[in-house]
Amino acid sequence: MPAPAAKILWLAQTEHEWNAHYIRWLARWSGEGYLQWEFDRIRPGIKMEERAEKWLEETDEFGMNMMLIVDAAEHRSVAFVAAVH
After folding, report:
1. Counting Cβ atoms within 10 Å, is residue 70 exposed (0-12), middle (13-18) or buried (19+)?
2. Highest taxon of the source (predicted)?
């Protein structure tokens, strides 16, 4: 499932403006937008995975919240399974 789109796409006021931004966005991503499962690749450290860094540069508040929810659900699931066993 795709991750939330770039903030600039959400802020477009007209279809023409959205199309222009979308064409540039699609070229920037080589036609392969960021996917939600890639949130799991984001790790603490000095160097971040390139696609994650690119997505974080352009996301908005909704995208950040989505990433945090997916991350929390994943870590809670692992902790829950460990506690049950």
Report:
1. middle
2. Eukaryota
